[in-house]
Design the sequence.
């Protein structure tokens, strides 16, 4: 992603920083982006788009607590309170369903959940898709 030919092919301007897997030296705070993409979710909901947001429950860079606070800003009705979801009979995390959005946690991983919890993440996404966008 950082070679000159790839950056040129992807129209990445010279002033754009190099891509890195994860910014270990950067602290992300909710206060820096209070609005973030909050505006798009009501539009998606209004158009019948079913949504799922997942978060690793041990993430220090993108913490579940911050994501939960952000979702609360949507002010959407909670349809189903926290409940467990499982992979092969083991608890893989928790899900809370709102009117228009499922918020899912993945136990024991951070924001690189697909890399570190492959089977639970596959189970989560596959189950959500097969159930018509509902957990």
Sequence:
């Amino acid at each position: 992603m950082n070679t000159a030919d790839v950056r040129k092919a992807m129209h990445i301007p010279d002033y754009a920083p190099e891509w890195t897997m994860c910014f270990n030296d950067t602290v992300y705070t909710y206060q820096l982006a209070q609005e973030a993409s909050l505006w798009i979710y009501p539009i998606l909901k209004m158009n019948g788009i079913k949504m799922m947001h997942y978060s690793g429950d041990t993430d220090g860079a993108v913490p579940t607590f911050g994501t939960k606070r952000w979702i609360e800003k949507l002010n959407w009705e909670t349809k189903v309170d926290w409940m467990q979801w499982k992979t092969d009979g083991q608890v893989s995390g928790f899900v809370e369903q709102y009117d228009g959005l499922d918020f899912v946690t993945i136990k024991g991983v951070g924001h690189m959940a697909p890399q570190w919890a492959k089977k639970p993440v596959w189970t989560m996404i596959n189950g959500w898709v097969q159930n018509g966008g509902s957990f």
